[in-house]
Description:
Blueprint: H1 3-13, E1 19-21, E2 33-35, E3 47-48, E4 54-55, E5 60-66, E6 79-81, H2 83-96, H3 105-116, E7 118-121, H4 133-145, E8 153-157, H5 163-170, E9 177-182, H6 185-200, E10 214-219, E11 230-234, E12 249-255, H7 264-274, E13 275-286, H8 296-306, E14 309-317, E15 324-331
Parallel strand pairs: 1-7, 8-9, 8-12, 9-11, 12-13
Antiparallel strand pairs: 2-11, 3-4, 5-6, 5-10, 13-15, 14-15
Amino acid sequence: MSFLDFLSDLNKAGAAEPSVAVPDDHRPRQPAARFDPRTAAVPMLPTVTEDGSHSLAGPLHLVGQVVPELRSVVPVPVRRRHLSDVQFEIASRDTMGDAAGPADADTEVLRTTIAMGTDLIKGVYEGGLKTWECSVDLAAYVLNSGIVQPSTRILELGCGSALPSMALLAHRVPFAHLTLSDYNVQVLHLVTAPGVVLNAGPPPADDELDRDGAYEAEIAAGWDAIPENVDFVSGDWSLMAEHLSQDRYDLVLTSETIYDLVTAPRLLDLIEAKLAHTGRALVAAKAVYFGVGGGTFEFNALVSSRGKMRCSTVHVETSGGVRREILELTWLN
């Protein structure tokens, strides 16, 4: 089955309505670990050689997409891996057997969430396949504010498609180091790392794009196209600090991550543990998350209750019906 055949079948089937699955809050925490796509135990879908065997070496073949929400906001197209290409790879692993690498729990989770049309399963899958509104806001803000300097060490938490970081890469904004983290390692493998590869290279020409902004990309260098100053970490925030490569970060970015009143304190714990004394954290979120709790008001109150940081609103968006904000956290002393 080709990618185009798969995409056609997917469109005929129709997209499932998004939903939120909320299990018991007393759930196990995902272990944290560093992830390197260049040496990952589970490789990208292997290429088929002339003799019919499967090879893990050689170029990467991806279907990218220009992020439509940012096309009129920033000068250079910001790219992400097309969701249907992710779905195609997961589906193809079922027919590739051992050549596609061993199936793991994370891959099974992603397969289930795609089949169910589920945006969130607390403690299991935290929405990494979806591009959320506030990540678009944060990408535009970080790029247009000029706060990233060549000496800046950046940590993006709960990154998923990591639009803020992808915008920096696409626009060739120099920085000292970038760590991308997500709860699920397969989100890093299937979504985040391919996004880095796509944005580290040249943008597609207009005549390469279809109506959806999708295009086919062949990256000759494979995973080696990832810049040396970019790394990846997966797992729960409460277990992550010791696995991060930098002692401190000058800029922490996170979007749509404070919807859960249980995990928001873990996020703040990690920010407090890793933010440099002169650094800032930018938290992009909705004022309220109906049905799941959390929001900017509750998070602001949490920050204030600890008495360590000031929390101020530096950007507001009111389009789309629900107020969206970007909060800036800096040390009080």
